């Protein structure tokens, strides 16, 4: 394993930036070798010892494992429980974590035209550190990328910039979408300007064009991750969370994003085609769902009546399946039909995902694809 350290704007680093070395981040809809997940158990995030959440994670892992290897990282005290419950084809590995959001604490994988795999090791502060972060400490989460690099024996580019995987989406052809609310948040990288952050993304991920959406979904506790609002489904095509109710705060956010997307061109000069996915709900935490959670001083509170940032955009694109969250019986069917039309060569699998949403994210948030290499 080779490690490269890069400054905040990594141009001119001793070994060259990932982009200069020929690496880039593939799209999620490109072929995968594997998917990485973590096992939920944190009692201040997941109710009732995370037993309901574990069942949802099992369903997600099982669906993805139909067409690609799935690794589930588990703390030692839950290893035997996870190994017994997860299907045999899912690989369970001891990989200590503070919580189960592999999209954000796991590596951003890069590929090279010569067939090499590498990864980016961003900084991580639990979505804001002590200024709005969701829990403390995050020391185990911070080591996950290094451990996976060791396990796979691949190059690791250490980039001292605070960035979570859910904050970015790429089309694999030079275009990246993100939100200003997250990447320019003072609790992430207060010393980086928008232009400097764009340069970091170009140097690290091999992209040429960055499309900035103003905000993420309403009340998204990650400070507006793009993967809950908008994602690439093909080159030149995105799916966008949509709300038709003008009295709903999501209404203005979705229209604001649509205006930016319709005015944008991607790195290849194409206008974007926008597919609207209806917003589920609105969804709120029920009285019984707020019980059974440990109340800790440094943890994000989960109270009865709180609105959750539910979104059908938070799905995972596997090799042969698209695993989507089932969140609202009145809209699940419509969302599934839209996704099936967008991915005609893949089977759309719905997983009851409210238990994942109760923890603050969804299917895309708990997964991280490892792209296929030649």
Summarize the structure.
Its EC number is 3.5.3.12. Residues 1-22 are annotated as: Disordered. It is built from nine helices and 19 strands.
Explain what you see.
A four-stranded mixed sheet has the order 1-7-6-5, with helices on both faces. The protein has a single domain, classed as L-arginine/glycine Amidinotransferase, Chain A, CATH 3.75.10. Helix content is 23%, strand content 24%. Strand 11 and strand 12 form a beta hairpin. With 374 residues, it is α/β, with parallel strands linked by helices.
Distance between the termini: 18 Å
**Shape descriptor:** globular
Report the β-strand fraction as a percent range.
Answer: 15-25%
Q: Largest sheet, order of strands side by side? A: 1-7-6-5
CATH architectural name: 5-stranded Propeller
**In DSSP terms, counting alpha (H) and pi (I) runs of 4 or more, how many helices?**
9
CATH fold title = L-arginine/glycine Amidinotransferase, Chain A
Query: What's the total number of strands?
Result: 19
**Which ranges are low-confidence, i.e. pLDDT below 50, for 5 or more consecutive residues?**
7-14
Provide the helix percentage.
10-25%
SSE series: EEHEHEHEEHEEEHHEEEHEEEEEHEHE
Q: Name the CATH homologous superfamily.
A: L-arginine/glycine Amidinotransferase, Chain A
Structural class: alpha/beta
Give the overall average pLDDT.
94
- Rg estimate, integer Å: 19 Å
How many structural domains in the coordinates? 1
- The first-level CATH class is given as Alpha Beta
Assembly annotation: single chain
How does the major sheet shape up?
A: 4 strands, mixed
């Amino acid at each position: 394993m080779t490690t490269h350290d890069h400054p905040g704007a990594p141009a001119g680093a001793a070994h060259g930036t990932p982009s200069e070395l020929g690496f880039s981040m593939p799209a999620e809809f490109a072929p995968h070798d594997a998917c990485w997940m973590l096992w939920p158990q944190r009692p201040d995030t997941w109710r009732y010892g995370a037993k309901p959440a574990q069942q949802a994670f099992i369903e997600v892992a099982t669906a993805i494992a139909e067409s690609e290897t799935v690794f589930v990282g588990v703390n030692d005290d839950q290893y035997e429980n996870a190994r017994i419950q997860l299907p045999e084809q899912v690989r369970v590995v001891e990989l200590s974590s503070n919580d189960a959001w592999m999209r954000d604490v796991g590596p951003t994988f890069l590929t090279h035209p010569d067939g090499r795999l590498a990864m980016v090791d961003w900084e991580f502060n639990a979505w804001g550190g002590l200024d709005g972060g969701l829990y403390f400490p995050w020391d185990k989460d911070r080591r996950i990328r290094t451990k996976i690099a060791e396990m796979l024996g691949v190059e690791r580019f250490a980039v001292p910039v605070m960035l979570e995987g859910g904050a970015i989406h790429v089309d694999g052809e030079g275009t990246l979408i993100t939100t200003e609310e997250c990447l320019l948040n003072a609790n992430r990288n207060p010393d980086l300007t928008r232009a400097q952050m764009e340069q970091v993304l170009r140097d690290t991920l091999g992209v040429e064009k960055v499309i900035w959406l103003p905000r993420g979904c309403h009340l998204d506790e990650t400070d507006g991750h793009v993967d809950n609002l908008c994602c690439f489904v093909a080159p030149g095509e995105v799916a966008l969370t949509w709300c038709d109710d003008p009295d709903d705060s999501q209404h203005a956010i979705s229209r604001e994003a649509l205006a930016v997307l319709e005015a944008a061109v991607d790195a290849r000069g194409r206008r974007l085609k926008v597919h609207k996915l209806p917003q589920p709900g609105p969804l709120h935490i029920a009285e019984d769902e707020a019980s059974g959670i440990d109340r800790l001083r440094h943890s994000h509170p989960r109270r009865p009546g709180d609105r959750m940032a539910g979104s059908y955009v938070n799905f995972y694109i596997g090799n042969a399946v698209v695993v989507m969250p089932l969140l609202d019986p009145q809209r699940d069917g419509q969302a599934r039909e839209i996704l099936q039309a967008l991915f005609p060569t893949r089977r759309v699998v719905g997983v009851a995902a409210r238990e994942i949403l109760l923890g603050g994210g969804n299917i895309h948030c708990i997964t991280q694809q490892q792209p296929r290499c030649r």
